[in-house]
Structure prediction request, 417 residues.
Amino acid sequence: MDVQQPINMGLERMERLMEKLRHPERRVKTIHVAGTNGKGSTTAFLREMLKEANFFVGTYTSPYWETPAEQISINGENISEEELHKCLKEIEEAITETEQELQTEVTEFERITTAALYYFSTIKPVDIAIIETGMGGRLDATNVITPLVTIITNVGKDHEAWLGDTVRDISREKAGVIKSGVPVMTAAEGEAFAVIEEESRIKHAKLYIAGKQGRYLVENRTEMETRFQYKSSYKQMDNLKLTMLGDHQVINATLALMALDYMKQYYAMMIDDEAIRIGLERTAVPGRLERVKEKPIVLLDTAHNPMAVETLVKSVKTMYPNTTFTVLFAAMKDKDDQMMIALLKDAFVEVVVTSFDHKRAASIAELTNNSLYVETTDTPLDWFEEKLQGLAEEDGIIITGSQDFVGRMRHGMTEKI
Prediction:
């Protein structure tokens, strides 16, 4: 995602926009999804299960691969460029008035967030919309909604320049999405969990914890699928199948199941077990431990912060214990790239760093400005093609780092595999 404006966090502009547009955020039922990692997967699990249960489901996600229209979808179908243009045109007067009154520019993210809420409530009303935070929570543009359920997947260090240097500071920002009386589902641990627990108590928001109120057990895993058991106070389901790889996806699916449990019990939303099974199995998100080739194995994963890299390493070592992987990595300047490279170097025999055409991308020089020796390439697609040709069938390549980088590689390597 190429940021067009400096990040300018705060809710004053969004609140003024909502008022001018007759509060679209109040005219649509929502689920709010925050967290450092796992937001996209949790949102996708929810979307597919609700869609299978015949709900008309909107989703607002970020960032995007190629075009902002990918951020707004209904039942998995992106808004068309024409529809997005129409929607932006209808809210333009409110944006202009807001900018004039507050003497500040509405950011691109605020503009698209407003478009999503207006689209889901006014142009093409949905039964429910799943809204992901962009960054943080407390001051995020999406935090104008009051959802049926709040989900905070996990909390780790990321976006420190805006959210704070410590896990506790970042957790406070994430916990800022918690609303009075609105239940919270979380998989956060340690210090982060303590902050979320405290905020939930202050806001009288019932807290549901993955692994406690929503228990999960991996029953079987292969290179193609994971099967697990889910158990709560309301139900037990065995042999649930995920085709999204990695045990962390079991946790994301559990958070989605906990949210559906709550909505079924307290909002009478009819979601049968068959819809749950089919929805979970059908869920797929590009770039989440995505296998795009089998022999040799080629994996794409948008591990863009240290917590995500740790999850990637754990998942790959569990699923492919006998495979030797080479890693191709690129990152944004505002990330802890040295920590990510160190984690990758500890886990894999060869790590190659590169860069890409983006004003926030870290250069090769910046990525190699450390004591860790790594290979480099300034032509990642050519490197990939050459590496693939010389690779044994039992070995593999992992392409990881910034979502923008992984997305560009995914698009460019299509003809090479």
The chain has 14 helices and 17 strands. The two ends are 25 Å apart (CA to CA). The chain has two domains: 12-282, 290-416.
